[in-house]
Every structure is written in structure tokens, then in C-alpha cells.
Amino acid sequence: MVLFIIGLGCASCAKSEEEIQEEFDVIVAESNACNDPSECVYASPGCPLGCFVPVNSAKKAYVEEEARELIEDKERWGTYCQYECAVPGPLECVEGRCREGASP
Fold first, then answer.
1. Helices 17-29 & 60-75, crossing angle to 10 degrees?
2. Which of 6, 21, 29, 84 is most buried, by the most CB atoms less than 10 A from its CB?
3. pLDDT tens digits for 46-86?
4. Quick one: average pLDDT of 1-19?
């Protein structure tokens, strides 16, 4: 019975989707600096954090690992999602940040 009560109390410990997205946005913002488009690649975080995010190639593994941890934490509380992703556009380095460019 004690474990059940602790489990109920901890359900409020789960981060909301908005909190997870905000935390991930900070990680991406810290990971997408560039000097040239050749430094930019797409990381694939997964649902609900997006299909692709442009980041510096040196930070791709870090961003994907952080995304995986955030998603696993959310899924631990029984919240899952899935979606299909379209092919992303080309990458650019604009004002020192990697970003998706316009499709040709």
C-alpha cells in the first residue's frame, strides 16, 4: 500500500510535454553554433521533440542522447507518441546558427 501511495505522489513528478520541449530547446540552442554550413547536420530527437533539428555535427550525438533521456523519462510515466517525418530541407549556417534552409 505504501508503494502505491508513493507511486501516486510521484506521478506529479513527471515533466509536462511543454517542460520537456523547453529543456530540449535549450539543449539545441547550445548545440547549433556554426561558422559554415558544412558544420551542420540533422539530429533526430523523436516524438514529441521533433523529427529533425539542425545542430553542429560535433554535438549531434549529445543532442540525440539528451533527447532520448528526456523521452524515456516521459515514457516512464506511460506517455508515448509517434509520428511520421517528412524529409528535411537543406541546411544553412545563418548568423552563426545551423538552421533548415528553403527547399530548392
1. 170
2. 21
3. 999 999 999 999 999 999 999 999 999 888 877 778 888 98
4. 59
CA distance 39 to 56: 5
> Which residue ranges make up each domain of the chain?
15-98
Q: What is the pTM of this model?
A: 0.80
The CA distances from residue 77 to 16, 19, 55, 80, in Å, are 11, 15, 29, 9
Instruction: Give the Cα separation of 31 and 26 in Å (integer).
Output: 9
User: Is pLDDT above 80 for 25?
Assistant: yes
SS3 letters for 1-35? CHHHHHHHHHHHHCCCHHHHHHHHHHHHHCCCECC
